[in-house]
Amino acid sequence: MPPIGVMGGTFDPIHFGHLRLAEDMADALGLDRVLFIPAGQPPHRGTPHTQASHRLEMVRRAIAGNPRFTADAREVQRPQPSYTVDTLTALRAERGVGQPLWLLLGADAFLGLPGWHDWRRLFDLANIAVATRSGAQLMQPDAIMEPLKSEVMQRQVAGKNQANRPAGSVLLRATPPLDISATAIRGMLARHDSARYLLPDAVLDYIHEHQLYVHT
Ligand code: ATP
Ligand code: MG
Q1: Which ligand is nearest the CA of 36, by number?
Q2: Which residue, 57, 133, 171, 210, could crosslink 129 as a Cys pair with Cβ 3.0–4.6 Å?
Q3: What's the CA-to-centroid distance between 98 and ligand 2, angstroms?
Q4: CA distances to 47, 201, 208 from 44, in Å
Q5: Which helix (H) or strand (E) holds 190?
Q6: pTM of whole model > 0.85?
Q7: Beta strands 101-106 and 69-71: pairing type?
Q8: Where are the domains of the chain?
Q9: Is pLDDT above 50 for 135?
C-alpha cells in the first residue's frame, strides 16, 4: 500500500515553503498522495486572518495541476477546534490499519509538538517527517528537548526503504530552506508591497480579487 502524506497548516496564505516541503517529502518517501488539510479553528494560535473558505480555495488553486496533491476540507468543515490527533484518527479509520501515513511538519512545528493535544498518540497514528527550516538546526538531536527527544531517538529512520510502515517512525530530513512565511507575506500585502515569487501567481490573483490581507 503506497504511503500517504498529511500536510496541515493554517495556510494563511499557502506559499512555496509549504509546497516545496510536500513535494520534497513526496519524493523522499515515495508518497503516492499528499493531503493538504487547512486548519479550521487552529487550537495553538490566534484566529486566522482569513476565513476558512478563502484559505481552502487558495490551497485548491495552489495545488491545481499537481497529480500527487489533494485538498482535504475536513478540518474547515468542523466547527470545533481541529486537533491533528482527531484528523489522523479519522484518516486511520477510513484507510485501515495497514495504510502508511506520514505527517509532514516543518521544524518549528515539530519542536512545538509537546504542546499539541494528546501529542504522544500522534506517533501511534502516523509516521512523522520533519523538514529543517532555515534557522532551525534540527539535525543535531541536542537541539531537541525532552520529552520529544526520547520519542525521536527510539523512532528515527533513514528514509524511503522504511516509508511503508503504517506509523511510529520519525524522519528528520534536511531540505533546502525557503525562507518564506505567511506572516511575512501578510505584512508585504498590507504595505502594498509585491509578494510575487513567494507564492503561486494563482494564489496571488485570488488574494487581489478578494482583497485579502489589505487591512491586516
Ligand atoms: P505563519 O507565518 O502564519 O505562522 P507559516 O508560513 O509558518 O505561517 P503555517 O501554516 O504556520 O505556515 O505552517 C504550516 C506548516 O508548514 C508547518 O509544519 C510549518 O513548519 C511548515 N512551513 C511553513 N513555512 C515553511 C517553509 N518556508 N519551509 C518549510 N516548512 C514550512
Ligand atoms: Mg507558522
Answers
A1: 1
A2: 171
A3: 31
A4: 10, 29, 28
A5: helix 182-190
A6: yes
A7: unpaired
A8: 4-178
A9: no
